[in-house]
């Protein structure tokens, strides 16, 4: 650019020509100018554009993300002060759940979940999102107000997406009649079964949703048509794979044509062995024992050793049965020596043990157990959240009462 200025060429016109000729050069030039402006203004060179550097690590959301909050969250990875500020904000939002006194207790849960999704774009166990999903759905699973609430059902679906096997969650929702009037339940359940190649059960789930006229019905019908197309293509592909396996194949992978395969019989060295093994055995025929005519039995060293110390006499009947004829004895003739213990007193059936109670403790009322639904979230650190999230992924209903698993 300096050389162009010395030659009397307009630098602005030259840059415009380069940008018009090569879009990639124009983009790199804009990035360089932007970094120069940031450095001159005293800010960091990447402020406001962190998503360009970390976008591979950002989990996508269906509703999209707030770019300003996303950049602030990504900047906290290299700034300890911003990270501490995010953790304090999360703690305040969790405390606001217990302090809520309105008519919709699910609302603060949804606000907290939405904020965590935006502020921890990488996800992961340290964000506490999986634990938050579990505690939210466990808090309201028996509440009749939210049985058919679409917001509550979507939290269940997000929790299912973060579990290793979500089928147990769908079975739980079906058994407790949660979200059975919404098509999203049947669509998500059917897609999950399709990934496990359970096409028959997936077809039953789709038909169940259609019979119940789950809302919106048009969305469920479209998903069912897509499922039928996918299952048909899957079955057709399996049939082609089976037909390919039955073709005759030469060595070096050359496939025989149909005429060549009829002319050339397949040679299988294992086949004669199978025919011999499958021959019918005559059970009435006596078993023949092989005898070697050339061998001399008397020359065997074992036979010579036997002849040296042979057992020529069988012995009398008394000698052979001496172990089975013991002399009968009287069992009552033996008596175990015992010590005589003098009992001081015996407890009566009506007697009870008096438990000592401190007077100061007796005056205090018994402590009531904490009913906070966010106690684990407020007291847990990143390591505990990670451990709990890993256990919930393997067993998503581990903290639910047994009567809920009906």
Structure notes:
With 406 residues, this protein is an all-alpha fold. The protein has helices at residues 2-6, 11-21, 23-40, 50-54, 67-75, 80-99, 106-119, 129-140, 150-161, 167-175, 183-195, 199-211, 217-245, 258-263, 270-277, 301-308, 317-320, 359-363, 375-379, 382-394. Among the domains are: 1-30, no CATH class; 59-123; 150-243 and 377-406, Alpha Horseshoe (Serine Threonine Protein Phosphatase 5, Tetratricopeptide repeat), CATH 1.25.40. Helix content is 54%, strand content 0%. α6 packs antiparallel against α7 (106-119) and α12 (199-211) runs antiparallel to α13. It contains 20 helices and no strands. Residues 93-251 form the BUB1 N-terminal domain. It is found in: Chromosome, Centromere, Kinetochore; Nucleus.
What Rg is obtained from the alpha carbons, in whole angstroms? 41 Å
Looking at the overall shape, the CATH architecture of the domain at 150-243 and 377-406 is Alpha Horseshoe
Instruction: Count up the helices.
Output: 20
CATH class (first level) name of the domain at 150-243 and 377-406:
Mainly Alpha
The largest sheet, given as strand count, sense and whether it forms a barrel, is:
none
Dominant shape: extended
CATH fold-level topology of the domain at 150-243 and 377-406 = Serine Threonine Protein Phosphatase 5, Tetratricopeptide repeat
Distance between the termini: 77 Å
| SSE string, helices as H and strands as E | HHHHHHHHHHHHHHHHHHHH
Tell me how many strands there are: 0
Mean residue pLDDT: 75
> Helix proportion of residues, in percent?
40-55%
């Amino acid at each position: 650019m300096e050389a162009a200025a010395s030659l009397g060429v307009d630098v602005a016109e030259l840059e415009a020509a380069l940008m018009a000729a090569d879009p990639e050069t124009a983009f790199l030039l804009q990035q360089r100018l932007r970094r120069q402006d940031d450095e001159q203004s005293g800010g960091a060179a990447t402020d406001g554009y962190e998503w360009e550097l970390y976008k591979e690590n950002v989990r996508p959301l269906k509703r999209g993300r707030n770019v300003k909050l996303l950049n602030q969250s990504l900047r906290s990875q290299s700034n300890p002060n911003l990270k501490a500020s995010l953790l304090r904000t999360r703690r305040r939002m969790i405390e606001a759940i217990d302090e809520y006194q309105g008519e919709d207790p699910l609302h603060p849960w949804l606000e907290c979940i939405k904020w965590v999704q935006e502020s921890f774009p990488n996800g992961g166990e340290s964000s506490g999102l999986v634990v938050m999903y579990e505690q939210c759905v466990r808090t309201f699973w028996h509440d009749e107000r939210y049985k058919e609430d679409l917001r509550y059902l979507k939290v269940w679906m997000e929790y299912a997406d973060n579990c290793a096997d979500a089928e147990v969650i769908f079975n739980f929702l079906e058994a407790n009649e949660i979200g059975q009037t919404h098509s999203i339940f049947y669509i998500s359940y059917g897609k999950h079964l399709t990934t496990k190649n359970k096409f028959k059960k997936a077809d039953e789930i789709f038909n169940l949703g259609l019979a119940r006229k789950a809302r919106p019905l048009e969305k469920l019908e479209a998903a069912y048509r897509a499922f039928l197309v996918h299952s048909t293509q899957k079955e057709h592909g399996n049939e082609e794979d089976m037909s390919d396996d039955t073709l005759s194949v030469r060595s070096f992978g050359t496939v025989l044509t149909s005429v060549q395969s009829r002319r050339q019989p397949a040679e299988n060295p294992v086949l004669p062995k199978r025919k011999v093994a499958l021959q019918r055995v005559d059970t009435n025929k006596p078993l023949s024992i092989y005898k070697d005519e050339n061998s001399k039995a008397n020359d065997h060293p074992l036979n010579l050793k036997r002849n040296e110390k042979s057992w020529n006499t069988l012995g009398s009947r008394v000698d052979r049965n001496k172990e089975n004829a013991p002399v009968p004895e009287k069992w009552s003739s033996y008596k175990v020596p015992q010590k005589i213990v003098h009992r001081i007193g015996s407890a009566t059936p009506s007697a009870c043990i008096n438990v000592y109670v401190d007077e100061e403790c007796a005056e205090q009322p018994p402590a009531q157990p904490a009913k906070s639904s966010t106690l684990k979230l407020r007291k847990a650190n990143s390591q505990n959240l990670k451990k709990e999230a890993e256990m919930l992924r393997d067993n998503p209903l581990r903290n639910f009462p047994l009567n809920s698993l009906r």
